[in-house]
TrEMBL record:
UniProt KW keywords: Membrane, Secreted, Signal, Transmembrane, Transmembrane helix
PANTHER family, A to Z: COLOSSIN-B-RELATED
InterPro entries per the UniProt record, alphabetical: Ig-like_fold (IPR013783), SpaA_PFL_dom_1 (IPR041033), Thioester_dom (IPR013552)
Gene3D superfamilies (UniProt xref): 1.10.150.480, Immunoglobulins
TM annotation in the entry: 7-26, 733-750
Organism per entry: Clostridium perfringens
Protein family per UniProt: Belongs to the serine-aspartate repeat-containing protein (SDr) family.
Protein name: Cell wall anchor protein
Domain SpaA-like prealbumin fold residues, every copy: 308-394, 402-487, 495-581, 588-684
Domain (Thioester): residue spans on this chain: 53-143
Length: 757
């Protein structure tokens, strides 16, 4: 068993070591960086020395700094199979684009396999700049010729042409030019010829003695000499060429290796959502490879094996849809019509199977229905010995359509100025930014290509809530009317504070109940109760007109259902403050002074009345109308007098509550009555004679809102001495008589004893 475990451990260790070897084998990293040149920023990788690389994705971040001590250093891993590998990053733009990029790198800088740099007079920085720009334009789908024949933009156009019509294949040599002999001044000449292919050269090994190969620019004789790929030349013959002759070519070339670099780590994290660009470069193998070719020629006609085929594909520039009904003319490169009224079929194609080698162009004369006409020539070349169909493409931009976005208030439909939107495609990529609604609440765009779009709000109008929900719409091909869409916004919520107060003293009143209503009287919220501060506070009201309606008054106060109106406005900064006052619930109280025995009225009494909450300070009154009618008023007097025919007085509008009625002066011959404790409310009013007396219910005269209390007085004897109340009861008189008699008896006994002695 131990021996088995030891063997198993050894096997696991070997497997683990091999795993580590594989891990480390694929994780070699290369420093890539950006550097300034005379033509702007260029990109390099440290891969066995500094090598030019090209960024693959225009809208991504470029590689970082070349400085060893920089924090912005970026590292990449390398892969060598580009054309023959299925890979997410390499195939991001599709196989066709990948093949075009490969061809571009072969003809562009630094391989320069067709010597285009020399032809257009470009140095390394300029050629590098143009090559990079074209890489980006091809991957972005923005590649279009400048129409120049010379300099940087002539170089751009030539690279663009070659990337479209010359699919790169290792060792594939292509002849450019019209390989036909024309008799001039007794000799036979071809037009200008050149080749494209891998970097290298070729020689014509069986050139007849009556033929001479010459450099197009210098007339240098190139017989038996290597002719560089891309070098311009022509063939001269002193006799009419034999139509059966086949020229044998020995092509000596260097194979091209492509290196693709993927971002691994490093760089500044300034925008974590934006990835770094992938990188690509090409270099030549050190060894040369030979490949033989044969080219058939004829002085009067083009042999059938040299006839070429072209397919023009007509597509929508946005979605790649194939377009039927476009009309083209086929022209030579000088613009002379060769064939006219060629129409794309249901597959969006024009197919021609019988074109002699040469340079051609398609020129559109009528666009498909709903599309813009584009007369830019689509150039292509049929080469001698061509075996594959030339596939070219012409895209059309659909006629532009329009959209109107109208911004409104969600409640009242008011048009809203100042909302900011971005226009995006359906994947959320910004197409236009900072579009602002005008005074009519609108954003108007009249130049949109057919497709699916969406508006996304980035800033709400002042006083409104932001709503970033996309508003989707579609511009269709051939659209004749503007698309109208709408986006509503909800205004930011505002606040209100209702303060409930006593109408006279301003005291804050707790316990009042309100409903919140709209201006039509519809309840929005109910049973809102004023707190200990007398307030109802709401902070979540949409702009609009409202009213508070009281449904229950604070205890002891009159209900007042008069609405308290207020308005919440858009962009309100502070809470609206409103106030509602209540009047104390009040009644009328009549005090009548009567004799306790006869029940007859007694004039001359004076009273004070106190709130049971403040027994130190009597209430003050003023007379109203007549001397026996009083109302509470802080500027009045405290004395209430019971005079007149019925010896009474009335306190009008006395608020509900608890009071103490004190007699401060009795009628002449009567003693002061006890304090009377009075309780007044709407439901159960009563009074007590003395604090511990029995409750005596009060009945209201509803027609007069009046309670009556009869205050009775007992008769008493007036004493001459001052002080007290001036009255004495019969019991007290008897006690006094007995006291005086007792004193007189003592005095009599004392005097009698003195006489005996």
């Amino acid at each position: 068993m131990k021996r088995f475990l030891k063997t198993l451990s050894f096997i696991i260790l070997i497997i683990f070591n091999f795993s580590l070897i594989n891990v480390f084998a694929i994780t070699k990293e290369y420093l890539a960086y950006s550097k300034y040149t005379s033509e702007g920023t260029a990109f390099f990788v440290n891969d066995d020395g500094e090598k030019t690389v090209y960024c693959y994705n225009h809208d991504y971040k470029p590689p970082g700094s070349p400085n060893e001590d920089s924090i912005n250093k970026t590292y990449y891993t390398r892969e060598e199979s580009y054309l023959n590998t299925d890979d997410e990053l390499m195939d991001k733009y599709g196989k066709e684009i990948k093949e075009r990029i490969a061809a571009l790198l072969v003809y562009g800088y630094p391989l320069n396999s067709s010597n285009l740099m020399e032809q257009y007079g470009l140095n390394e920085d300029k050629a590098r700049y143009i090559t990079q720009q074209l890489v980006w334009d091809i991957t972005n789908g923005n590649d279009a010729p400048f129409g120049d024949k010379y300099g940087m933009y002539g170089y751009y156009d030539k690279l663009l042409e070659l990337s479209k019509i010359k699919k790169f294949e290792q060792g594939n040599l292509n002849l450019i030019g019209n390989f036909k002999f024309i008799q001039r001044n007794g000799i036979y000449l071809t037009d200008k010829l050149s080749t494209t292919g891998n970097s290298g050269s070729f020689t014509i090994t069986n050139l007849p003695e009556n033929m001479t190969v010459k450099d197009w620019n210098t007339d240098q004789i190139l017989n038996d000499k290597p002719i560089k790929v891309g070098q311009e030349f022509y063939i001269e013959s002193s006799a009419k060429p034999d139509s059966s002759l086949k020229l044998k070519i020995n092509y000596n070339y260097q194979e091209v290796k492509f290196y693709f670099y993927k971002y691994s780590r490093g760089g500044l994290n300034t925008n974590p959502d934006l990835p770094y660009q992938s990188l690509i470069r090409a270099e030549l193998e050190d060894k040369f490879t030979e490949k033989p070719y044969e080219i058939s020629i004829d002085g009067n006609f083009v042999p059938s094996q040299d006839i070429g085929k072209v397919v023009l594909n007509k597509k929508d520039s946005q979605n790649g849809k194939l377009l039927k009904g476009a009309v083209f003319n086929l022209q030579d490169q000088q613009g002379n019509n060769i064939r006219t009224n060629l129409i794309t079929d249901e597959n969006g194609q024009i197919v021609l199977n019988d074109l002699a080698p040469g340079d051609y162009q398609f020129v559109e004369t009528k666009a498909p229905n709903g599309y813009e006409l584009d007369t830019t020539p689509v150039k292509f070349t049929i080469v001698v010995g061509q075996t594959e169909t030339v596939n070219i493409e012409k895209v059309n931009t659909a006629s532009l359509g329009g959209v109107v976005l109208t911004k409104k208030d969600s409640k009242n439909g008011n048009l809203l100025e100042g909302a900011v939107f971005n226009l995006q495609d359906q994947q959320g990529n910004n197409i236009r930014t900072n579009l602002i609604t005008d005074e009519n609440g609108q954003i108007v765009l009249n130049d949109l290509a057919p497709g699916d779009y969406q508006f996304v709000e980035t800033k709400a109008p002042n006083g409104y809530e932001l709503d970033a929900t996309p508003v989707k719409f579609t511009i269709v091909v051939g659209q004749t009317e503007t698309v109208n869409i709408e986006k509503v916004n909800t205004a930011s919520l505002g606040g209100v504070v209702l303060t409930k107060k006593d109408s006279k003293n301003g005291n804050l009143l707790e316990g009042a109940v309100f409903n919140l209503q709209d201006q039509q009287g519809n309840d929005i919220r109910t049973n809102l109760i004023s707190d200990e501060n007398g307030q109802i506070i709401l902070n979540d009201l949409a702009p609009g007109d409202y009213q508070f309606v009281e449904t229950k008054a604070p205890e002891g106060y009159e209900l007042d259902a008069t609405p308290v109106k207020f308005t919440i406005v858009v962009a309100q900064k502070e809470a609206v403050k409103v106030e509602k006052t209540n009047i104390l619930a009040a009644t009328n109280l009549k005090i009548s002074k009567i004799d306790s025995n006869t029940k007859n009225p007694l004039n001359g009494s004076e009273f004070e009345i106190y709130s049971q909450n403040d027994t130190s300070n009597p209430l003050k009154f003023i007379t109203t109308g007549s001397s026996d009618q009083y109302e509470v008023n802080i500027i009045g007097e405290s004395t209430l007098m019971a005079n007149g025919v019925d010896s009474s007085f009335t306190i009008n509008k006395l608020g509900y509550g608890d009071y103490i009625l004190k007699e401060i002066k009795a009628p002449s011959g009567y003693k002061l009555g006890k304090d009377i404790y009075i309780h007044l409310d709407k439901i159960n009013s009563y009074y007590k004679i003395g604090s511990d007396g029995e409750k005596i219910d009060l009945n209201k005269d509803e027609s007069l809102n009046l309670y009556n209390i009869n205050v009775e007085n007992e008769k008493g004897i007036v004493l001459p001495e001052t002080g007290g109340n001036g009255f004495i009861t019969q019991r007290n008189i008897a006690i006094m008589v007995l006291g005086i008699s007792f004193i007189l008896m003592i005095n009599f006994l004392i005097n009698k004893k003195r006489r005996i002695n």
